[in-house]
Amino acid sequence: MGHPPGPSVVLARPDLAPEMGHGEALAGSYTRVVQTMAYLNHAGTSWPKALEVRAAVERVFTGDPGTWAEDFERDQAEVARLLGVAPDRLLLTPGCTSALALALADLPWSPGDRVLTSSFEHHALMRPLRALERRGVEVVAIPARGDDPFDLDAFADELARGARAVAISHASNVTGALLPVGAILADARERGAWTLVDAAQTAGWLPLPLEADLVAFAGHKGPGAPWGVGGLVVGSEVPMASAGAVCTLGGEPPPRATPGYCDAGSVDRAALAGLAAGLRRMADDAPLDRARAHIARLEAASGELERLGPPPAARMPTLALRVPDPEPIRVRLRDAGVVASVGLQCAPRAHETLGTAPSGALRFSAGPTTTAADIDRAIAALTR
Description:
Layout: E1 9-11, H1 22-31, E2 33-35, E3 38-39, H2 51-62, H3 68-83, E4 90-93, H4 96-106, E5 114-118, H5 123-133, E6 138-142, H6 152-160, E7 165-169, H7 181-190, E8 194-198, E9 214-218, E10 230-234, H8 269-285, H9 288-300, E11 306-308, E12 318-322, H10 326-336, E13 338-339, E14 341-343, H11 348-354, E15 361-365, H12 372-383
Helix pairs in contact: 2-8, 3-8, 4-5, 6-7, 9-12, 10-12
């Protein structure tokens, strides 16, 4: 994942906002800060955090502890509403990684079961899948086909051989490519396979693919929430073993216990408040088209560097480029004050598929706070 840079920000000058372009004014009002660097690693993590998010977090730390329970229920309901799910189907977690691990560990498995996944998955999904392999579960990675990160014909063939579950990402964190989740989930459902979607890259930007049985999401990327909050949306027919295990009424599990009802432990209330505020801000701003336009302009100026992945309309606001030697690029970007991702982006198997291992790729990714000036600076660094 990416890490936020140091405190290289200064307070914005609201008097300059009318002189900015439409997208720039939106981005400026979103954060009320002006970066002294071009931050283009939003696929790693969002930065800076919006004022609304920071204010929501601060209210938890300085507010009335007597309202914590009420505030928690309000924020949880708001997160569920903004994600389009019932509150009692939302299981809050410390992040998408823990949500994926919980989902895969909690389903009933038997030796010989098969799980189908893609060849573009993040460590967060691959590691719990590897744990299942140690329990005798077969994990099959569906190959890519050209710019498409998922070969639907190969998937259909493997699905016909039988699968207990299908576990895929909504979008690649390396190239931003959107997987054909609608077709994948429909085919899996027809064959009776459980479905799990890693929506870390798309939550807040796009509607969650709620036709899946399980959807994991991160708060710190698109929504711009604090680090350490995410969730798992659990379908009503999913046999989660732990749902209700720690919830008792008179020593017995409650009837028809639901995941949201049976959360255990102390939830990070401040992070949850930030998640609600971040999702609300994303819904109001709707920055996807603006961010894609920024990335399209950067791609047009990238010269002879080869783009990895599909055209802009088929991916998130991400541009991955093949670079023969990443180190000079890394130094040039650093010296120019451009924050991007150079390396394997926590997905070595994807880079093996792309032919960019072991050095990886150069990845730029825009977010709600990205401005034309950020893109100008990145273009200058690339073409210098």
